From TrEMBL:
Pfam families: SeqA, SeqA_N. One of its GO terms (molecular function) is sequence-specific DNA binding. Belongs to the SeqA family. Residues 66-173 form the Replication modulator SeqA C-terminal DNA-binding domain. It comes from Leminorella grimontii. The lineage of its organism: Bacteria, Pseudomonadati, Pseudomonadota, Gammaproteobacteria, Enterobacterales. Keywords: Cytoplasm, DNA replication inhibitor, DNA-binding. Coiled coil: none annotated. This is Negative modulator of initiation of replication.
Length: 175
């Protein structure tokens, strides 16, 4: 087994294509490149040119993709802050599932859990949490927080997902 170094964006891209817990980066890449399962044989260097190209989004296009997602779901045009909040979260999840999961794991209040994969968990951790399902995700989020707290939650997630401060500020001001 050889070791290679990859940048954070590439690592997150590969990790976002995980199908099951414990799947290795090699297994993920083999699946993405339509290569047969490992049998100990190496791909001869002469055949490297024949491998299909993998499209990796550089950071600039990642920001563009996020802006496009926000525009498509019309997050900025929603009348209620909670609706804008949910669509922003949905867009973040759609762009980077594993990055979103990592960012929400560490996001908790003093006595509350803010994000969960089940409504019941959020209801257990607060009387009046008003959990709502985040569209097109398996996640639930509490929604009875004030607008500033919702902004702080989005800021935390976008910072953890390594979005630039300027974009993070723009998105938070949409809420």
């Amino acid at each position: 087994m050889k070791t290679i170094e990859v940048d954070e964006a590439l690592y997150r891209y590969i990790a976002s294509h995980t199908l099951h817990i414990g799947e290795s980066a090699s297994e993920i890449l083999r699946r993405m490149l339509n290569l047969p399962p490992a049998d100990g044989d190496e791909v001869p260097m002469a055949n490297v040119e024949a491998l299909p190209a993998v499209s990796i989004e550089p950071p600039a296009s990642r920001e563009s993709a996020f802006r496009q997602r926000l525009a498509e779901c019309q997050a900025g045009e929603q009348k209620k802050a909670v609706d804008r909040f949910l669509l922003i979260l949905s867009s973040l999840y759609g762009l980077d599932k594993s990055g979103f999961a990592e960012a929400t794991e560490s996001l908790m209040g003093r006595t509350r859990v803010y994000f969960s994969l089940s409504e019941a968990t959020l209801l257990k951790n607060g009387r009046h949490t008003k959990p709502k399902s985040i569209p097109d995700t398996p996640y639930w989020v509490i929604t009875n927080t004030n607008t500033e707290r919702k902004r702080n939650m989005v800021e935390h997630i976008m910072t953890e997902m390594r979005f630039p401060e300027t974009l993070t500020g723009e998105v938070c001001s949409m809420i």
